[in-house]
Specification:
Layout (H helix, E strand, L loop, with lengths): L6 E5 L12 E5 L4 E4 L2 E6 L18 E5 L4 E6 L15 E5 L13 H10 L4 E5 L13 H10 L27
Parallel strand pairs: 1-2, 6-7, 7-8
Antiparallel strand pairs: 3-4, 4-5, 5-6
Helix pairs in contact: 1-2
């Protein structure tokens, strides 16, 4: 259901991909920021492509740092290992893809690389995405999580693992955990 009150933020040259019915569609180029409704949204260039078909090579692709007065969320999405996030620190939640790396590790991080980038941004919680729902590539469907857990070691409690449809609440106080 579309909302005439919803603003959609998309990468450069992607507005036409969004159906009519939203209040506004704003294109944001990598390296730029936007302040909207109490949030600062910064677009970051991941190590991925923006193509939506075999011959479509001109569309942008972004990761986003979303900041409010009391929370910082890094939605990296699809990306290979990159230093694009090296200047971002003290994130409450980092969202990284951990699947579809075999044979596409040049565009999708392995679980180990996602964990390394999570640690580099000094995030409190990791929400791994892009895995375990259907076959995306050549690795077994359960492999991404089975590789992430040992990599995280004692830090495994930082991994948020909601069930399908579950809402995970992140409290911003240092002693808080997900509920």
């Amino acid at each position: 259901m579309l909302s005439t009150r919803t603003t959609v933020i998309v990468p450069h040259r992607c507005a036409r991909l969004i159906p009519d019915g939203f209040a506004e569609v704003i294109e944001l180029k990598s390296g730029t920021s936007l302040q909207i409704k109490g949030l600062i949204i910064t677009a970051i260039q991941p190590k991925h492509w923006g193509a939506r078909s075999l011959i479509d090579r001109r569309r942008g692709v972004n990761s986003y740092l979303v900041e409010s007065a009391n929370q910082r969320i890094l939605f990296a999405g699809d990306t290979a290992h990159t230093d694009a996030y090296r200047d971002i620190h003290l994130v409450d939640l980092a969202v990284f893809g951990i699947g579809a790396y075999d044979p596409w590790d040049h565009m999708h991080a392995t679980p180990e690389q996602a964990w390394a980038m999570f640690q580099e941004v000094e995030a409190r919680y990791l929400l791994p995405i892009h895995h375990s729902t259907f076959e995306l590539s050549d690795e077994p469907i359960d492999e991404p999580l089975s590789r992430l857990y040992p990599e995280a070691g004692k830090g495994r409690s930082s991994i948020i693992e909601p069930a399908l449809g579950e809402i995970a609440v992140i409290n911003t106080s240092p002693s808080a955990s997900t509920q």
